[in-house]
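A quick aside before the break. I want you to see a complete sequence-to-structure record at least once, exactly as it would be stored in a machine-readable document. Don't worry about memorizing anything.
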Amino acid sequence: MNARSALLILLGLVIGALGTVFAMKALGSRNPMPHAVMTVMGHHMGALSQSVKAKQCDAAQVNDHLLRLQSTSADIADAFPGAEQDFVDHAGRLRTALQGAVQAHPTDCAALAQAIKPVGDACQSCHQQYR
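That is the input. The structure line, written in tokens, reads:
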């Protein structure tokens, strides 16, 4: 009886280890798109905020960051398939805020701070609800 019990325990451990490996592979192969989109947006928003803090707002660099933010924001719906309508609405408000910031074409730090405030507010309201 002891050999049989030991064999069953060993078999249970092997099956558990295999199950763990399969579960870890499944978790590791999740869709990286949502994290990537938010990371890229965070980078560009951070660069703009840093420019305002450092009071070094080069118009060409600012415009580049704003355009990249606007372009990346168009990927939010695709990055989060099956998201609630409210989440999609938040993403739409972010795109509208970014469109306004791009159209404002800020050329100095005061104008940039004013242009990115609605963008930051749109990000904040979504993150408060969905993060």
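Two observations worth writing down. The mean pLDDT is 90. The radius of gyration is 23 Å. We'll return to this after the break.
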